[in-house]
Specification:
alpha/beta, single chain, eight-stranded parallel β-barrel, globular, 11 helices, two-stranded antiparallel ribbon, about 325 residues
């Protein structure tokens, strides 16, 4: 017999010190950029939402466009337009935070997509003032500059975190890249600063593709597919026993099976986006129902009963998480 909403298992979890009704977080996307859409997500049982990211590049692009078309002959005109443009962008975001907090009863996490610790950092204080429950820093570093060493790139994480943590008291979570020569060491060092309360593994980059008929560079599929969940799964399993911070899996989680796998690996929660685009907001309650039914079959009543049961330090064969090459025994390939 299937559970009714009143006799479901306890799906609640704690992320960044915030109480979540369940472990499904809607990540930063087009569904989290308006109050109406955010309310719909909350009505469909989302555990928390991450607001659509504010980008450094987004602000700069708008600024540049205005400056190219604006002409004035009085001193300070350029500085005035620069501040006016920035103020409008910031104010719109702050209004979204305030309205979302007023309209729903689940945690609202602000998001900033950044690559430096420059002037945008002061904005973090305004995010806190408007009531955001936490701040997700989406630090998108693609180590493509041959003049920069791994240490140079990793230093940026520390610089940004140091700058933001000096300004806000709300918890900070880091959505980071998997591009690092020593990823486990980097995550561990970042956790030791005690300036980051959680990690989201990983951000998903725009990927280029090539049209061989038109011979042009185009965008690859913007939405993830379930096979991409293997990367986060590996690193959630490897890191959950090494650090005492919250870990959230992101990319490729499309159904309840994918959700259960990440929790078994040790995830505190998961972020979903692509599956909502593909299947609609009703995917959220469907995934939760699937999780609940699986827990009932396995005689679990709380997430804590099984979270991390198959993490690196708990699995019967932990070496499979570190394996980097196929073997006949595991892959069926010679």
């Amino acid at each position: 017999m299937e559970n009714t909403p009143n006799d479901m298992n306890d799906l609640s979890t704690t992320y960044l010190g915030l109480e979540l009704k369940n472990p499904l977080i809607v990540g930063s996307c087009g569904f989290t950029n308006s109050v109406a859409k955010i309310k719909e997500l909350a009505d469909n049982q989302a555990g928390a939402i991450v607001l659509k990211s504010l980008f450094e590049e987004q602000i700069q692009a708008e600024l540049s466009a205005n400056l190219q078309t604006y002409n004035a002959d009085y001193p300070g005109a350029t500085d005035y337009i620069r501040e006016y443009t920035r103020g409008n962008e910031v104010d719109n975001y702050l209004r979204l935070i305030a309205a979302a907090k007023n309209g729903i009863d689940i945690p609202v996490i602000a998001s900033i997509n950044c690559v430096s610790a420059n002037e945008w950092v002061a904005f973090a204080k305004s995010v806190e003032r408007e009531g955001a429950d936490a701040l997700e820093l989406n630090i998108s570093l693609l180590p493509s500059n041959p003049k920069m060493t791994s240490a140079d790139n990793e230093k940026k994480y520390l610089e940004i975190i140091d700058s933001v943590s000096d300004l806000v008291a709300i918890p900070i979570t880091l959505k980071m890249s998997q591009y690092s020569a020593a990823l486990a060491n980097l995550i561990q060092r970042l956790s030791w600063t005690n300036k980051v309360a959680g990690f989201v593994l990983f951000n998903r980059y725009y990927s280029p593709d090539i049209d061989i008929e038109k011979m042009i560079v185009k965008s690859a599929d913007l939405l993830s597919n379930p096979s991409e969940s293997c990367g986060p799964l590996r690193w959630i399993a490897l890191m959950s026993g090494l650090i005492d911070k919250d870990l959230v899996a992101s990319t490729g989680i499309h159904d309840s099976e994918g959700l259960v796998k990440q929790l078994l690996a040790g995830a505190t929660a998961v972020q979903i986006v692509s599956t909502i685009y593909k299947n609609g907001v009703g995917r959220i309650p469907a995934m939760l129902e699937g999780l609940d039914q699986w827990m009932t079959r396995k005689s679990f009543t709380r997430l804590a009963d099984f979270r991390g049961k198959l993490s690196y330090d708990q699995a019967a064969e932990p070496a499979v998480f570190e394996r980097t090459q196929f073997m006949k025994y595991y892959g069926g390939l010679s």
